[in-house]
Amino acid sequence: MKNLAKLLVPAVVLTLAAVAVVLLVFGGDDEKHLTAKFPRTVSIYEGSEVRILGVAVGEVETVTPSGTEVEVELTYDGDVDVPADAQAVILAPSVVGDRFVQLTPAYESGAKLDDGAVLELDRTSVPLELDEIYQSIDELTVALGPEGANRSVEGREGALSRLLRTTAENFEGQGEQFNQTIHDLGTLTGTLDNNREELFGAAARLEDFISTLAENDQTVRDFNTSMANVSEMLAGERQELAASLRNLGTAMTAVRGFVNDNEALLSRDIKGLNRIAKVLVRQRGALDEILRVAPNALANLNLTYNPQAGTLDTRANLTEALGNLEEDPANALCNMLGSLDNGGQLCNALNTALSRPGALREMQGSPPLHDPTLGGLVEVSP
After folding, report:
1. Close Cβ partners of 373 (under 8 Å, ≥ 6 residues apart)
2. Does residue 90 contact residue 38 with C-beta atoms inside 8 Å?
3. How far apart are CA 102 and CA 56, in angstroms?
4. What is the CB neighbour count within 10 angstroms for residue 359?
5. Which residues contact 62 (CB under 8 A, 6 or more apart)?
6. Angle 330-331-334 (CA atoms, 0-180°, nearest 5)?
7. ∠ at Cα 245 (240, 248), nearest 5°?
């Protein structure tokens, strides 16, 4: 067993060495290379991490200055996909300490970044350095200082000092109101956030309304022109309008007094008018016939007048009526009485009376018939 163990140990060591050599020689196929150009690479060194979404996937191989830019060669795992439009960003997790290169965004779908790709300056970015921040603050201080915006002119205090003093005077004693304003503004912001759908809906409706106005621009212009003309006319007649309104007020006062003084009489008159209106409603057929026939009748009457003789020249066509009266007196009389309201009753009575033999002869010499419906005496003769 001891001899077997002595033989196995060298064999295992040789196997592990062979595997290490194979990984060293052929392991490069599991990595991808990328070159990124930065304007500067503060705290980026060989071995600095390359991350995606904060997860280390590779490291920086070389950092080489080249004119006004720095070329950074980096590698990342071969099974990691990077989008073709990816960018390289140097991130600083703290003010002091090593930094790393982040490839962003993470791959989801679409084209992939090729192995050995080069990212130019327009696809890389670096963090703002602390000395740049200090320099910006210094420049702002100088710009606002006594040599800048706060420079005194002719012994007067600088503009910045006047601004601060005026602001202090304006807000003096207004701290509570200022705090309430900020609080109300926060409430308003929260209300708008809770009702953003309604707000966006109102904005959409407003957009539709504005679009409608734009589509009918000429109509809107014509309307505005008309309104301007009306306004101009009313402006020119404002004195007359004011006088008319004053007179109308005086008239309304007088009418109110008249109505109060004659309330009983007006009530009776209105009731009388109501009765007349009802009569007119019941007789609207007759009124319609009068309005239709009266113009023709008046025209005929005008034509019958003879101004030379001062007479009404008419011609009564009674031949047919008289002939009918001799042949069929009942029918002729019924035709004459047909326009009366009770003409039918009279016709029935006449037909009954004349149906008896010798009835017409019996009526000769008899006194006239009195019919109150005809408004007087009616003589019936053969």
Report:
1. 340, 341, 342
2. yes
3. 9
4. 15
5. 46, 71, 72, 73
6. 85
7. 125
Tokens for 166, please give them: 């005026």
With the CA atoms of 337, 343, 345 and 348 taken in that order, what torsion angle do they form, in degrees rounded to the nearest 10? Answer: 40
Which residues partner with 35 through β-bridges? 73, 118
First to last CA, the chain: 173
User: In this structure, are residues 149 and 159 in contact, taking their beta carbons and an 8 Å threshold?
Assistant: yes
Rounded Cα distance, 132 and 121, in Å: 19
Rg value, the chain, Cα: 59
46 contact partners, CB below 8 Å, separation of at least 6: 60, 61, 62, 63
Peptide bond into 105 cis (omega under 30): yes
Q: Could you report the average pLDDT of every consecutive run of 10 residues in the chain (382 residues)? A: 53 57 51 94 91 93 92 94 94 79 93 93 89 84 78 76 82 82 86 82 88 89 89 85 88 88 87 88 86 86 80 64 57 64 67 61 50 43 40
The strand pair at 117-119 and 31-38 is best described as parallel
Helical spans, DSSP H, in 105-237: 130-144, 159-171, 175-194, 196-215, 217-236
Please report the pLDDT score of residue 111 as a whole number. 94
The 3-state DSSP class for residue 166 equals: helix
- pTM score, two decimals? 0.37
Q: 280-328, pLDDT tens digit by residue?
A: 888 888 888 888 888 888 888 788 877 887 777 776 655 555 545 555 6
How far, CA to CA in Å, does 372 sit from each of 26, 330, 332? 141, 20, 21
DSSP code for 174: -
Neighbours of 31 (CB within 10 A): 16
**What would the two tokens of residue 279 be?**
């009569």
Domains in the chain: boundaries = 30-128, 263-303, 319-365
Q: Is the dihedral of CA 9, 10, 11, 17 positive or negative?
A: positive
Segment 320-355, tens digit of pLDDT: 555 455 556 666 667 666 555 566 666 777 667 666
37: Cβ–Cβ under 8 A, 6 or more apart, which residues? Answer: 66, 69, 70, 71, 72, 118, 119, 120, 121, 124
